[in-house]
Design a protein that fits this description.
There is one protein chain. The protein is an alpha/beta fold. The chain has a single domain, classed as UDP-N-acetylmuramoyl-L-alanine:D-glutamate ligase, CATH 3.40.1190. The chain has 10 helices and 15 strands. It has helices spanning about 50-60, 75-85, 150-160, 170-175, 180-185, 195-200, 210-215, 255-270, 275-290, 300-305; strands spanning about 1-5, 10-15, 20-25, 30, 40-45, 65-70, 90-95, 100-105, 115-120, 135-140, 165-170, 190-195, 220-225, 230-235, 240-245. The strands form 3 sheets. The chain has a 9-stranded mixed β-sheet, with helices on both faces. It has a 4-stranded mixed β-sheet with strand order 5-2-8-9. It has a two-stranded antiparallel ribbon with strand order 3-4. α2 (about 75-85) links the parallel β6 (about 65-70) and β7 (about 90-95). α1 crosses α8 and α8 (about 255-270) runs antiparallel to α9 (about 275-290). The relative contact order is 0.15.
């Protein structure tokens, strides 16, 4: 039995900081034909599924990850990170004809990042999910399924049949089918979006006077909208809460959303109120952006409670 299973992408992330990066409000780049020094680097597992699964484990939960990898020597970084953080990896599957996703992440001096992604053929399909082995799970944490809404619909139906709660953190490919993802989201227990995603999801500007009204009309049970350095909002069917960020010097903003969402769900599992869950999410994400990489700064249970 698992407390939570994360479903979605597993990648390898290569983080690079360099004083030679040219950063303007519009462009991040390097001089043509130049050789440049790297001041700091990190290679680790990434993707919403592994990031959240590691966070759940550090926060004291029994977690697992369902993801699909290709054939690559980079896979060892994923297995090593999961093992080190006591995440069950029995549901990490290999597809020989595919290549594992990886990203090169350029970190600006202010902590903002630009990402170059190589996507392999590792989209999860229904036959990859070990349905019979995951019935006794409290929560599913569903991240991007690379637009596979048929699989999402099946996961939601399976969860309803087996009394499993769902957090949904859709990616851009899911949001492209706005009407369908909107209807599916009504059947989950917690919807996590960032500001830009929320504007696509609701087809309305976040700062519009009608935005709050539309959220309540949508009949979504619990929604969190993160807004980068502007903090985060949560909405229940009757209440709204806001929290600013915790003041910190950002080193790398990668993984801020994953750390927020995983801490939020963990708080719910520990029977905390949505308002307390909001604080846990804010605290975990503040710690993560203070270090290089999406997992380095993830808090453990004692740290998040203090």
């Amino acid at each position: 039995m698992f407390d939570v299973i994360s479903i979605g992408a597993a990648t390898v992330d290569i983080f690079i900081k360099s004083k030679d990066l040219i950063v303007t409000p519009e462009i991040v780049g390097l001089k043509p034909s130049s050789k440049n020094e790297i001041s700091q680097s990190l290679i680790s597992s990434g993707g919403g599924a592994t990031n959240s699964a590691v966070s759940f484990s550090r926060l004291g939960l029994k977690s697992a990850c369902i993801s699909l990898l290709g054939q690559s020597y980079l896979n060892q970084f994923i297995y090593d990170d999961l093992k080190k953080n006591k995440v069950d990896d029995q549901f990490i599957f290999l597809q020989k004809s595919a290549t594992t996703d990886f990203s090169v992440i350029l970190i600006n001096p202010d902590g903002r990042r630009s990402i170059l992604t190589n996507r392999g053929d590792t989209r999860l399909e229904s036959h990859h999910i070990p349905w019979s082995k995951i019935k006794k799970t409290q929560w599913f944490y569903v991240t991007s399924l690379e637009g596979n809404l048929d699989l999402l619909e099946k996961i939601i139906g399976f969860a309803k049949e087996n009394n499993i709660k769902i957090c949904l953190n859709p990616g851009n490919r899911e949001l492209q089918s706005r009407r369908r993802i909107f209807n599916l989201a009504k059947m989950v227990d917690f919807l996590l979006l960032n500001k830009e995603e929320s504007e696509t999801f609701f087809d309305l500007d976040f700062d519009s006077n009608d935005f709050l009204k539309l959220i309540h009309q949508s009949k979504l049970p619990l929604v969190a909208i993160t807004n980068g350095r502007q903090g985060a909002h949560i909405f229940t069917d009757t209440q709204q809460f806001y929290s600013p960020i915790i003041s910190t010097k950002p080193v790398d903003e990668t993984g801020a959303g994953d750390s927020f969402g995983s801490a939020f769900v963990t708080a719910l599992i520990y029977n905390k109120s949505p308002q307390d869950a909001l604080f846990w999410g804010i605290k975990n994400s503040a710690s993560v952006v203070s270090s290089l990489g999406a997992k380095t700064g993830l808090l453990n249970l004692k740290q998040i409670k203090d």
